[in-house]
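Reopening this one. Same input as before:
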Amino acid sequence: MSAVLIDGKARAAALRAEVATGVAAFVATHGRAPGLTVVLVGDDPASAVYVGSKGKATREAGMISGEYRLPADTSEADLLALVATLNADPAVDGILVQMPLPKQIDSDRVIAAIDPAKDVDGLHPINTGLLVSGRDGLVPCTPSGCMLLINEAFGGSSGSNIAGAEAVVIGRSILVGKPMAALLTNASATVTVAHSRTRDLAGHVARADIVVAAVGIPGMVKGEWIKPGACVIDVGINRIALPDGKTRLVGDIDFEGAMARAGWITPVPGGVGPMTIACLLANTLKAARARAGA
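Same output, byte for byte:
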């Protein structure tokens, strides 16, 4: 058996096209484009790249892109004041504060200060509660993208084909692991949340029809653990050194080993990554529609 590669780039491109069509309709109805504002505190190179790519994608979708780049010594009070200003700005439909934040700023306090209706990262406690209770809200972008890929692999868009499947989510972060488990539970999968300290991780993975790995440890999930025919979603993005001095990106799953056993698998890069920004755009359009009563 050789797994079918899940093409995250192609699925993300399709979603971005859907969003662009929706944005054009929104503009025609409401006379303005949805607005997404991203806030970056400090000069972390990776974060700066992410912010730049988000801005480019926002503009390509026909939305208004706002950006604030604040110095690393910005106080928590100043950041909270900016968030309050953006909350009150009717032209801003989505607010994203890029993580991580400098140590003098409490990330939880900043997330809680964002208007839940504009929380396009889906991390506000109200949006978390809506997700866990199975109600409609803004869902974190990476898990949302994973769910779209899983649904596509299972041949459906509603999640009905996932019902009853055994799923293992490896990782318990608020960004990926916990919301991913909630989404799968809401789709009626039987979900196990595992992590780096789980006993007999191999045994849990071996029973799973769906494996989502988001733990940040290169190759932690061995190929021989994978149940034949399983759908394997690798969220990990780890840069490792090669013997020749170069580096390459790998996931949390032994790709070559898993490829021989899985039914479907995401590559790294080119799998989950492109879906995150596409789902951010979709969340921004959803937020704009909700705020406009559309």
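So the earlier flakiness isn't reproducible anymore. For the record, The chain has a mean pLDDT of 95.
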